[in-house]
Predict the structure of Kynurenine--oxoglutarate transaminase 1.
Amino acid sequence: MQGEASRSLPCSLEAPLSVFWSSGPGRLWLESNYPPGSPGCCTTATLTFCLLCLQLAMAKRLPARRLDGIDHNPWVEFGKLASEADVVNLGQGFPDFPPPDFAVEAFQHAVSRDFMLNQYTKAFGYPPLTKILASFFGKFLGQVIDPLKNVLVTVGAYGALFTAFQALVDVGDEVIIIEPFFDCYEPMTLMAGGRPVFVSLKPCPTQDGELDSSSNWQLDPTELASKFTSRTKALILNTPNNPLGKVFSRAELELVASLCQQHDVVCITDEVYQWLVYDGYQHISIASLPGMWERTLTVGSAGKTFSVTGWKVGWVLGPDSLLKHLRTVHQNSVYHCPTQGQAAVAQCFEQEQMLFGQPSSYFAQLPQAIQHNRDHMIRSLQSVGLRPVIPQGSYFLITDISDFKSKMPDLPGAADEPYDRRFVKWMIKNKGLVAIPVSVFYSVPHRKLFDHYIRFCFMKDESTLQAMDQKLQMWKDELRP
């Protein structure tokens, strides 16, 4: 089959070129209306160039534009570096110790006893799970939660966040993101067509010799208020914060709540680390504040709650007026989450509901054990001249590397590469320790302002921390005069 296509080609000919498609895939040729050798005839080189231009003009763009600029992922990059060397991996946030026995038994029960758990369940959540989530969290949020209308089970907290952004953020909408932020918030905003608007937590000065604390990192109320406009659709809050470990105080949450209410803005609150809070601090859900349930989506994670990050069971709680839009996205994307994982998580929550507030509760035991790990890591990092920022919660702490930045300013790397990225690559290669550069948790304009911090994960087994100690001791010996 042959046919002509009319295209404007960058050719010197005044006469038209005929473009013919052959029946073979991808085969076409050009034919001049001038005889060979005449003054107007194209040379072979010119025809070839015209052909390439035509192919480029007719080629379809393969990737969707929503993917522009978000193809890079720090976990892939630094995970690859960690796999190429003999290292102690304190980068990615997951436990390297077993889950509690009751969680393992719950999963074994789910996969071995009721054969119907191998089949579909309700699209928006396995009924025993949505029921226990409604009962359990209703007490904390001061709400009567309807399991059918106010709970959505998702593929991890990641899935809850993605579903929320896709359901609520439209082209041109602004989303306020508090820095440092978990890195998926920005690309999820962009994929939905929204515009990220950033506001930074800023550290307050400390006394000489005193360690900084995540509680010292504060929002400027005036700056935060200035970020709200008529186009602001949502604000995303993360408490306890990753990577900083900050637990937002009631006063800070009341500031955020008042601005959200004043400007009719939805609050998406990522609270996956809510049970990992230290030193007597208290986690407060912003949805529990007056007037906030109606405009808040609260995201949780079984992975962080029961130390089973691979189960990928998450949820989002909120009013039906918001959740009905998330259900629309959910039913037209994943539709349904694995039944057996949901059944296991339901059983875990049923046990914790009976034990809650008692010393034997996992939610009481886990933070005590992990605070011990945190303190161990703080002492070890201090021994080599690193200055940890004491976290109030989460799996992580960040540590100040300013002293190394002044002593070793010229580490290998691209001239425009933030210092913390170069430092982490150097540390992986030369010290056998993996961390994550904190600049990846900031917007591009702010990365150079905070490129003197790196993030470590202390949600690790005692043997991992001892291996860290050995690496740091070798480092310490090298630093001695």
About this structure: The chain has a mean pLDDT of 89. The longest strand covers residues 232-238. The two ends are 81 Å apart (CA to CA).
